[in-house]
Amino acid sequence: MKKIYVNELNNYIDKEIEFSGFIDTIRDKKWVMFVILRDSTGKVQMTIEKSEEQNKELLEIMNDITVESTVKITGKLTKNEAVKLGGIELIPTKIEVTSKALNLPFDYNNLEGVNIDTRLDYRWIDLRNEKNMLIRQIESTMVQAMREYLYQNDFTEIHTPKLIGAASESGSEVFEVKYFDRKAYLAQSPQFYKQMAMAAGMSKIFEVAPAFRAENSNTNRHATEFTSFDLEFSYIDSYEDVMDLEEDLLIAGLSKVKEKYGEKIKEVFDKEVIIPTKPFPRIKLKDLYQELHERYDFEIPTEDIGDMNAEAEKLTYKFALEKYNSEFIFIVGYAATKRPFYHMRNEDGVLQGYDLIWRGTEITSGAQREHRYDELVKNANEKGLKEDVKFYLEFFKYGCPPHGGFAIGIDRLTMLLLGLTIKNAQFIFRGPNRLDP
């Protein structure tokens, strides 16, 4: 029999059904036992009258069971306006205990005061919290809408390898793994393979997949493994085309989230889902430095000149709201020395790429890529990478169209949308000190 979920129960009034779920609450009264059952879509009340002889066996089962156990109920679904949970109740004729729960290590309905590491140690219990369940549903809706936007615009979803033979791609550290008789590395991103798809003539591709960064960063926004939403497309004229597409993609994702969960997000997370309008404001890095200095007396540290840091990102959000009334702002004009070798530079050596800041945090680095073999070799040599990226350079020897792309960290997007930390935003967090569960 097809599993019937709580959100489908109204289709089965006055019918005999089977319902499976968790026992959420047991209220044992003098004449009646009320049991609240739960699945991933909601809750329903089961009512057992104690005065009825045929219920004696059912009551014995329920007296021996614990909250959070799982059951399969056979019974009749009836209307009862007195029941607060949807005005319906389940009258059981059979109860099967499918698993019996031990006492929980903490009350997932009241997480205040529960240490985050304890919660992560028992993440499968922590996720039973309605708020945490909602986070997953919101993120899923956002990714679905972004995927659908790309499918509607003729993008092809690909799946690239996460085990790679070369360690060097950008400034981030990599995880080394044993690969039979040699070393391999966990991919920092699918960047090389996205561009291989461009050289293959695929024109428009995307991937939603894990990425790995061996960075010993213990912050509220960094993780060693995260989900990256990557795309690449060909026949562009400039990185402006890449920025335009990202605007449309984010508007599609946020619009769907607002439509489905906007009111719930305001109620539960006290956050407004604001749909940005096009075009997002755009500013050169040197002009942004000047604005931050004049408005907030901020000076970029010497080691960060040509780039951004966390404090600059927070102030940039404040600036974007004040000047443009926008939560989003593109920054262009980064120093080529601060960016990967495969980012294109114009004839003046100016990097053809950007970062996108949202709510005080960088969510994207995007660019027009360098597709000309000779230029790529020169850029790789500058950074001392030629041998490490030899296989990648081969992609560009046999013709490759102008192209560009970007990546969005899905976990970070969810974090900023709902005002969370990365540990709460990820399904299961991975950081320097966290490898379980």
Topology:
Elements: E1 16-28, E2 32-39, E3 42-49, H1 56-63, E4 70-79, E5 88-99, H2 116-121, H3 123-126, H4 130-152, E6 156-157, E7 163-164, E8 176-179, E9 182-186, H5 191-199, E10 204-212, E11 225-234, H6 239-269, E12 282-284, H7 285-296, H8 310-324, E13 328-332, E14 353-358, E15 361-368, H9 373-382, H10 390-393, E16 403-409, H11 410-418, H12 422-425
Helix pairs in contact: 4-6, 4-11, 7-8
Order of helices and strands: EEEHEEHHHEEEEHEEHEHHEEEHHEHH
SSE-based structural type:
alpha+beta
**Main β-sheet, in a few words?**
8 strands, mixed
Q: Could you tell me the number of beta strands?
A: 16
Strand order of the largest sheet: 6-10-11-16-15-14-13-12
Based on Cα principal axes, name the global outline. elongated
CATH class of the largest domain: Alpha Beta
CATH topology of the largest domain: BirA Bifunctional Protein, domain 2
Q: What report would you give on this structure?
A:
This protein is of the alpha+beta class. It folds into 2 domains: 6-99, Nucleic acid-binding proteins (OB fold (Dihydrolipoamide Acetyltransferase, E2P)), CATH 2.40.50; 124-425, BirA Bifunctional Protein, domain 2 (2-Layer Sandwich), CATH 3.30.930.10. It contains 12 helices and 16 strands. The strands form 3 sheets. It has an 8-stranded mixed beta sheet with strand order 6-10-11-16-15-14-13-12, with helices on both faces. Strands 1-2-3-5-4 form a 5-stranded mixed barrel. It has a 3-stranded antiparallel beta sheet with strand order 7-9-8, with no helix packed on it. A hairpin with a 2-residue loop joins strand 14 (353-358) and strand 15 (361-368). Helix 4 (130-152) runs antiparallel to helix 6, helix 4 (130-152) packs across helix 11 and helix 7 (285-296) crosses helix 8. The model has no long low-confidence stretch (mean pLDDT 95).
